[in-house]
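Supplementary Text 2. Reproducibility record for the structural model of the 609-residue chain.

All settings were left at their defaults, and a single model was retained for analysis rather than an ensemble. We include the record here because the model underlies the residue-level annotations in Supplementary Table 4.
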Amino acid sequence: MCGIVAYIGQKDALPILVGGLKKLEYRGYDSSGVALVSCGKVATVRASGKISALESKLKETPISGNIGIAHTRWATHGAPTEQNAHPHTSFDGKISIVHNGIIENYASLKAKLIEKGVCFKSETDTEVVAHLIARNYNGDLKEAVLKALSLIEGTFGLAVICSDEPDTLIGARRGSPLILGIGGEGDFFLASDVSAIINHTQKVVYLDDNDVVQIKRDGYSIVNMNSHEVNRDVQDVDFDAESIAKGGFAHFMLKEIFEQPEVLKNTMRGRLLIAEGNAKLAGLDTNIKELRNINRIIITACGTSYYAGMVGEYMIEDLAGVPVEVEYASEFRYRNPIIKPGTLVLAISQSGETADTLAALKEAQQKGATALAICNGVGSTIARTSDGGVYLHAGPEIGVASTKAFTSQVTVLAMIALLLGRQRRLSFEAGADIARALTELPALVEETLKLSDKIAEIAKQYVKANNFLYLGRHFNYPVAMEGALKLKEISYIHAEGYPAAEMKHGPIALIDENMPVVVIAPKDALFDKVISNVREIKARGGRVIAVTTEDCKPLDEFADHLIKVPKTIPMLMPIVTCVPLQLLAYHIAVLRGNDVDQPRNLAKSVTVE
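Retained model, structure tokens:
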């Protein structure tokens, strides 16, 4: 949510900053801006709308310099206007800042500044910080930032420049990610996401909460809020610029859907022990004995990760016999959860920066639970805060609507279920069967992706629909929820996911010839029950799009459209059945002319409440 990129070095900063913003636009695209120290002054250009609008303004008002900051915004405080766009400049014109996060006490700080004669030009909380730094500036930018931050309550990722110190760039973080990039020849970068700077360096420092970094062309130093110097490791980024390019696909989302076979291989690589009917997850090694003694699991997550957690609930209870609850992280953090000895909390987040999920994880730790993470963002805050965990190895996911992260999350949960099951009641033979089935998934998803053209034809018939209903049972009920979410996110069509049996308890009232119903109905133990639901839909004039397995015939006479996918064991079917739903949402959104990668009002990583 919102993107920061900053640069100091010997090169012209503007192309680096604008190029970085383009890589970050998936994090926020309501407005954007850049500020450079040029000829002893701060020069700022801002625009509402996407980065292209900023580029147009920069052609009219060119600026140059070798130190600068830039931002792309997802609006929180204040409308997405040029006036509210970052960077924000202090009352004296000397200090310029970009900010991710929320200043919770900005109203009281703003009132005090107004009393002292400061005039505000925006509706944002960020402008308060710029003025506070300026009020505390006495020739030392780092000290001014530290004094200002001591007055602030809330979260922030900050980059700050000052016209009086054209050789100094300051960064600070608390609760919002910020990364220091170390280039060659005196080049340094700040960014909220590695993707913004991957073209320039693969050596980074992940700043911790309450770190303040001072960067000059000859080096950098990091202190905490008490001005005590701290050391942070330099790490190598494990992906390159090519992995965040579209690679010939029309959209990042489509590319990421089609990457899933390879992603699943990467997620499972080196983790399945077929000869032992087990899984080995290195990130859980230090907790392996503790896992034997857990008697309850809470999975906490948001959005797509929440639905992956729901699939994991079924898997773990089925294989390991351990009771599992799945909770929205946004609710978990604000109630008083009962956590007794023997409770394990699994926090799931694609980015590893989701604010609600991070807060839920910390709450669980505060109450004495072992808290493990499942995330994609290497070096992310959740990964570093947790007591252990598993990386997805899904590679960068740029499309706002998550696809490959969902399938890799479910795959990791399947391996965790296998591991816990083998510790308890799962036989070697059953474990080996599951491990072999997991290894077959990439090929099955590859086969399913061949249905894309057929699904595109189906999409043409429903492009003007106003509502969709998605139904599934057991392992595929969460798939119905996730399928409905995908359609809502990118097509803006209202859609709801339900357990199929719940249709009779209300949603059936909505069904008529204008209500498409997507039914996930693989040939499994509950198939006959779902067939009954399909009959009820058809009896009321509903139109049925059925996702089923290749060995299934009974649906042929009832469904208006059949999408037949390869079969696997029931617990792994969600990894296959979700793919047609991703493609259906994608093709409908494209036909409606929507921006698939950057849907309205949404941002990729929700780092604020």
